[in-house]
Design brief:
Elements (H helix, E strand, L loop, with lengths): L2 H8 L5 E5 L3 H7 L4 H21 L4 E8 L7 H25 L3 E6 L7 H13 L5 E9 L1 H14 L7 H6 L11 E4 L18 E4 L9 H13 L15
Parallel strand pairs: 1-2, 1-5, 2-4, 3-4, 5-6
Helix pairs in contact: 1-8, 2-3, 3-4, 4-5
Bound molecules: 3-methylbut-3-enyl trihydrogen diphosphate (2 copies) and magnesium ion.
Magnesium ion (MG) binds next to loops.
Length: 244
Amino acid sequence: MSSQNVNNPAKGALKSLAIIMDGNGRWATRRGLPRKEGHIQGAKVVERVLAHVRELGIHHLTLYAFSTENWKRPEEEVEGLMSLFYKYVTHVAIPKIKSDPELGMMFIGDKSALPEKLRKKCIEAERLSEGKSFICNIALNYGGRAEIVNAANKAFSEGHTTLTEELLSRYMYTSHSPDPDLVIRTGGDFRISNFLLWQSAYSEYIILDTLWPDITDEEIDDCVARFNSRERRFGGVVDKPKKG
Ligand code: IPE
Ligand code: IPE
Ligand code: MG
């Protein structure tokens, strides 16, 4: 399906998209390459997907790049990923944010545990992103459970004694973006892996077998078309036209 076919139905319906970019390691292993090559290829693909998502009229994209659990990986892989993130933010993200008046990038997750020089670049990118109309959230050292605990602690530390859903939402890392309408996971696994636990309460889910570095624009279009064909009820009942 071409992007033309789904462009119009998608516009307006899907405002916020989130993607669990899984499968980089398997992509590399299947080619007899070290896992880090999969991560390098995965980072390149982000650029194309980002541009395509913008063409579809979506205003918020959230990408899962590194979870709070990913520190468990071998030291060499973690170091390789941190160095890749640093290069990406410094040489790709910041120049793009500077030259594109609409593009902003925010980093959701616990930045305090990131290497100092990466953390500084993330903060610089965020500062340059203020007031931008398209926001790409990169989930870096992100965990949904940690986010909820952090939000509650922040609310208490600012003097709140009772939590409400609305209040807690304001303390989430994602308070600047709407909840995702659709979450796509590549790599074929039917699990949430601690991603946007709070925000995805009523998100639609699509799992693709495709490994992240192999994702195509057409597959994204197909996901948007599948999303558009679903009936979202949010626990309610959709009125059907009365007979007769
Ligand atoms: C996702 O790909 C990227 C990160 C978690 C950083 P993986 O590295 O998890 O790839 P697979 O799932 O092992 O193939
Ligand atoms: C989820 O993938 C995290 C990211 C894509 C960054 P994982 O590969 O870490 O998830 P599990 O271990 O298969 O659940
Ligand atoms: Mg994985």
